[in-house]
Amino acid sequence: MTDLSPRRFPELVPMARPTVEADAEMELAIKEILQSGMLTNGRYVREFEEAAGAYLGVGHVVAVSSCTTGLMLVLRCLELTGDVVVPSFTFMASGHAIDWAGHGIRFADSDPRTWTLDPDAVAPLLPGAAAVLGVHTFGVPCDTGPLRELCDSRGIPLIFDAAHGFGSRYPDGSMVGGNGVAEVFSLSPTKTLSTGEGGLITTNDAALAAKLRMAREYGNPGDYDSRFVGLNGRMTEVSGFMGVHALKRFSHWLGVRRSLAEHYRSRLDGLPGLEFQTVPEGAASSYKDLGIRVDATRFGMTRDALAERLGRENVSTRKYFSPAMHQQTAYRGVPAVTELPVTEELASSMITLPLYSHMPARVVDEICDLIREIHATAQKAGGRAS
Predict the structure, then answer these.
(1) Edge-to-edge strand order for the sheet containing 290-294?
(2) How far apart are CA 386 and CA 384, in angstroms?
(3) Sign of CA dihedral 133, 137, 138, 139
(4) What's the rounded Cα separation, in Å, for the pair 20 and 317?
(5) pLDDT band at 3, cuts 50/70/90?
(6) pTM assigned to the model
(7) CB–CB of 74/159 below 8 Å?
(8) For residue 110, which phi and psi values (nearest 5 degrees)?
(9) What is the 3-state secondary structure (H, E, C) of 135-166?
(10) Nearest to 280 by CA among 87, 116, 109
(11) 167 and 183 Cβ atoms separated by less than 8 Å
(12) How many CB atoms lie within 10 A of CB 362?
């Protein structure tokens, strides 16, 4: 029998939505780009690289076609041999880039509070490893100090998948982007800064930056004698202009996004069985996603049941990252070097709630009210829904 009862939200509340301020300047620039015949790696891509470098406080920015491509190029240009340590609690692209670059994978566990790569879990995986790839999960920065010490002690590079991290800050106040050998950002539609598709590689190593620029052009310096095997990793001029345009108002929209995330946290604070990701003292998250961990015993129902109930009311959620990478079909052949209890617990209990920079605050209030009502109903029923 079809349920015809009215839903809390008449239209679907999306998990994410790009905040794009289309105006006359954008229309004129796109027309100019199309008429120019220079559709990739031209004026606007260079302007975007310079503007992003100034915003992030880094020496070099290399624009590429995607974050995944950027990670592959970094791994290739560092000329590494051996396995790369990476958290299993991350989006599949982190592992895909390692595999496509020709490296083996060693999955490491995450910190139970910050949900980022746990340095204590990394340490036993380092003998014989070629590099460590940390991930700024949902925009919360990794614990870079201990990770850097571990990598320096082994003489191996520390790289960061900063797909979620544009606008995040480390505990010392510096912007995410300037740590490690390189950090790689995503600019896809779900990110805090979006150019439709695209990525940025940041580094303070001038020689690496020069090599990366060649690598995104097939390894061809311009004379068609490729110096090494690169690939087509160019950013389009339209994406470059969108980046320049979006950066002008990025600080404003990031502030709005953070206020929405804090509003969620304050409205759901103290609700039994819900736990938010910890942002280290002094650090700032971009809040690319807002995740909550659901303790079924204390909340009164499982993560899956809560997601289903919210879905009935047209509220989108996502079970990030479930399954975890080591549980996915593509990685079942990767040898298990160590157990991953925190990763598996997070993968089975985490959901992310709707959040985008131009989301009305009243929608946050209504979603929080709904979650509180669902919790109260579950408690009244006196049992655990499954």
Answers:
(1) 274-276, 290-294, 350-353
(2) 6
(3) negative
(4) 22
(5) low
(6) 0.95
(7) yes
(8) -110, 160
(9) ECHHHCCCCHHHHHHHHHHHCCCEEEECCCCC
(10) 116
(11) no
(12) 8
